[in-house]
Amino acid sequence: MPVKPTLRIYHHLPPPERRTPCALTIGNFDGVHRGHQAILERVCQAARQRNLTPSVMTFEPHPRDYFARRHQRPELAPTRISGLRDKVAALAAAGIEQVLIEPFDARLAEMSANAFIEDLLVRGLDTRWLLVGEDFRFGHKRSGDIELLREAGLHYGFDVLTLADVTDRHGHRISSSEVRNALAAGDLPRAAHLLGQPMRMSGHVIHGRKLGRELGFPTMNLRVAPRCAARSGIYVVRVCGLGPRPMAGVASLGVRPTVEDAGRVLLEVHLLDETLDAYGKLVSVEFLHMLRDEEKYPDLPTLTAAIAEDARNARAYFAVHGL
């Protein structure tokens, strides 16, 4: 059985001694949905055929997030489908062997299109094959386009290919915006269709206020990335990473309006039939079904009764659909 290559992650351009000729694609890849997966499959295929390293250049933060903050218009920043850890894991699962997480800052925002090509693509990554979307723009004020890339490719010796939008069997475009819309509406089947799998969040279990334990429903707490695309509410979930098999759970995603006013979004997961110490462990939580929106209750007994009802409804879901 062939050994899977180790994923190399760079937050700045790789040092010269680590540089290998690559097949590259560029994008934000939020969610790594089925449209992204089609792009990544093409990159990996080209890399195999040409003996190149399949690579992705992505940005942190999202360029739209950077410009929204720069112009003091936070409402224009996109919500996030996945945190950086989940995005990189999905890229690796698709066969990518090298990820450059380029900091999107004033330096990159002001970089000319030619400097982007010469400094990043050619000297920085030794790009030999490049795949981008048909509407790809880059460089200061989005001055670079496909024509400029093709001219540079002829000069520097790399091929440039474009990929049209990927659509589902109904002809609908598969995009991060569509996934965000589905998650905002609590439409998990639609989101899973676009993603090719259930939406998931991963993170290390952190200590909370232990209130769930006092109420009889101990929870695992996970921090949530800012501007999470998923709707606040109560979900049926499947938890991976705590044993040889997934575990059934019910989860609350939101700001816990009944017990605190800090406004910090948290994911709290109650395992239905397991009791274990998970503090510090890295877990992955898959969102299977939305039960209801988040609510504020007048007192803790009312909250406890609602949690008990959520647990019953989650068990009923698993009784029908299995784990």
What does this 3D model show about the protein?
- It is a single chain.
- The longest helix is centred in the C-terminal third of the chain and has 22 residues, at 300-321.
- Helix 5 crosses helix 6 and helix 7 runs antiparallel to helix 8 (188-195).
- This protein has a 6-stranded parallel sheet, sandwiched between helices.
- The protein has 10 helices and 12 strands.
- 33% of the residues lie in helices and 24% in strands.
- The two termini are 29 Å apart.
- Helix 6 (146-156) links the parallel strand 5 (127-133) and strand 6.
- The protein is of the alpha/beta class.
- It folds into 2 domains: 8-163, Rossmann fold (3-Layer(aba) Sandwich); 198-321, Riboflavin kinase-like (Elongation Factor Tu (Ef-tu), domain 3).
- The chain has helices at 34-50, 63-70, 84-93, 106-110, 113-124, 146-156, 176-184, 188-195, 211-215, 300-321; strands at 8-10, 22-26, 53-60, 98-103, 127-133, 159-163, 200-204, 220-223, 233-240, 247-254, 266-271, 282-293.
Task: Write the SSE topology.
Elements: E1 8-10, E2 22-26, H1 34-50, E3 53-60, H2 63-70, H3 84-93, E4 98-103, H4 106-110, H5 113-124, E5 127-133, H6 146-156, E6 159-163, H7 176-184, H8 188-195, E7 200-204, H9 211-215, E8 220-223, E9 233-240, E10 247-254, E11 266-271, E12 282-293, H10 300-321
Parallel strand pairs: 1-4, 2-3, 2-5, 3-4, 5-6
Antiparallel strand pairs: 7-12, 8-11, 9-10, 9-12, 10-11
Family: Belongs to the ribF family.
Pathway: Cofactor biosynthesis; FAD biosynthesis; FAD from FMN: step 1/1; Cofactor biosynthesis; FMN biosynthesis; FMN from riboflavin (ATP route): step 1/1
Organism: Bordetella trematum
